[in-house]
Amino acid sequence: MTTSSPGSRLVDAYDLVIFDLDGVIYLVDRPIETAVAAVGRLHAEGKPLAYATNNASRRPAAVAALLSGMGLAVQPHEVLTSAVAAAGLLANRFPADSPVLVVGAEALRAEVRAVGLRPVRRLEDEPVAVVQGYAPEVGWADLAEAALAVRAGAEWFATNTDRTLPTARGPVPGNGSLVAVLRTALERDPDVVVGKPEPALFTAAARQAGATRPLTVGDRLDTDIEGAVRAGLDSLLVLTGVTRPVDLLHAPLLARPTYVATDLGGLFDPAQVARLPGPAPEEAGSTASGPAATGSRVPGLPIVADNGWQVTANGETAQLTGSGSSLEALATLCAAAWSGRPVDSIEPGSDAARSALGDLDLLR
């Protein structure tokens, strides 16, 4: 994996930046101001960009138009959606004009139609496959037809399994929640899940751009970050969408980002981004990377990072002491949590620690 030098801009270490959209560039259809400014700056600098989204409710041209309306010069070919990827897989699997039962938005139906397959809505149309994507209008009748078709032998494709979608009012049910309805009714998993955390969207973006050092940027551990890890790519988690600092502390091994930043300003300003600890040698087969720390694998010894912070375990409680940026404090807490220290209860051991824990919403 690529690493950036201390004091250098994170973005300069990579030849392509692959963005998730909802929760990174915008919330629903409302632009995140810092993200728009950052992407505009990258465009002005000529940095190659791509947009990989699990959202199957818009076609690439519509996504590009939406982003252009926010002041970003995005071309349709830079956008990769799970709907396009799903339609491509279906076209490779079934003959032209095969009936496919589509559960989702008109955009998903259009992508299925564009690859020469025939979108249908009912079991009586004898679909060879069911493809399921998110749309606000999906209801019980749609799910019932899908369940009947799968029981009758149709292959089941899901564009993604995002449990929630970020909104300005908080997370709401996403396609993964709708997939869970069918999973419960059918007592089985989909035959194919297309979008993140599967690595296909990321590898396709890198291949299309001819990139050898891509950086992926997302707001979700279970899709964006896990997909990047599975694709062997570095990743930046931004805290503008679904994931909160407390979630990061409990991230499983395959969903741990390389960096964390409050927003996309971390691409440019070293003070606004923190590198997170890499896997332990026994987990990765190589030397662990991340905030330099001593005692990180010895029970009872504190995590002492070279960023000014220290975490000490005291029974079931962890104590944060020292000073520095809130993001570096989070990186040190991750080093403690990911090496088995208790982090469910964190106490401040200094005024700076109290302030940092407050910034991270970890002060109890």
UniProtKB/TrEMBL annotation:
Example GO molecular function: phosphatase activity
Domain of life: Bacteria
Keywords attached to this entry: Hydrolase
GO cellular component: cytoplasm
SUPFAM superfamilies documented for this protein: HAD-like (SSF56784)
Domain GCN5-related N-acetyltransferase-like: start-end pairs: 308-362
Pfam families associated with the record: GNAT_like, Hydrolase_6, Hydrolase_like
Biased composition (Low complexity): 284-296
Region listing for Disordered, in residue ranges: 275-297
NCBIfam families in the record: HAD-SF-IIA (TIGR01460)
Protein name, as recorded: HAD superfamily hydrolase (TIGR01450 family)
Organism name: Plantactinospora soyae
